[in-house]
Automatic annotation (TrEMBL):
InterPro entries: DUF3052. This is DUF3052 domain-containing protein. It comes from Bifidobacterium tsurumiense.
Length: 144
C-alpha cells in the first residue's frame, strides 16, 4: 500500500496526470502573472521542452488554457476552438482555473458550457496545485 501512495505522489509531482509525454510540445494560452509557475515547470520537466505561447505557429501535442472568473465564457469557447486547431492527434487539452475560494475562481459549469459550445466534453476538475484545478477536455465521442 505504501508503494502505491509513493507512485501516485510521484505522478502528481511530475505532471504525468496531464497526459503529456517526453518530447511533447505544449502550448499555453491566456498566461498571466497569476499562473502557478510550478505547474509550468512540472510540464517542462516531464516533456523536456519549454512551453510555447499562443503565437506559436506550428502543430502542438497538448494545450493548457489558464482561465479565470470574469473572463467571457464565449471567449473561452473561442480560445478552445483556436487552441485545438493546432493540436495533433487529439492530444490533451486542459483548462486550468483557480480553485474555489481563490481570486479568479471560475465555476466548473462555465468551463463545461464553453467546452460544449466548442464541441468538447469537460471532465471532472482535478487538483493540479495548491491553488489551481484542471479540467481535461475531449472531443465528443473520444472516450473518457
Amino acid at each position: 500500500m505504501l508503494y502505491l501512495c509513493i507512485v501516485n505522489q510521484t505522478a502528481s509531482q511530475n505532471a504525468e496526470e496531464f497526459g503529456f509525454h517526453a518530447g511533447d510540445i505544449v502550448q499555453q494560452w491566456l498566461w498571466d502573472d497569476d499562473v502557478d509557475d510550478s505547474i509550468c515547470t512540472k510540464i517542462e520537466d516531464l516533456t523536456g521542452e519549454d512551453l510555447v505561447d499562443e503565437d506559436y505557429g506550428t502543430a502542438v501535442d497538448g494545450v493548457v488554457i489558464w482561465w479565470r472568473d470574469g473572463d467571457d465564457e464565449d471567449t473561452l469557447a473561442d480560445t478552445i476552438v483556436d487552441a485545438t486547431t493546432m493540436l495533433e492527434d487529439n492530444g490533451p487539452v486542459w483548462v486550468l482555473a483557480p480553485k474555489p475560494g481563490r481570486p479568479g475562481a471560475a465555476s466548473s459549469s462555465t468551463v463545461q458550457s464553453a467546452a460544449k459550445t466548442a464541441g468538447m466534453n469537460a471532465a471532472t476538475p482535478l487538483t493540479v496545485s495548491k491553488d489551481w484545478n484542471g479540467i481535461r477536455l475531449r472531443a465528443f465521442g473520444k472516450g473518457r
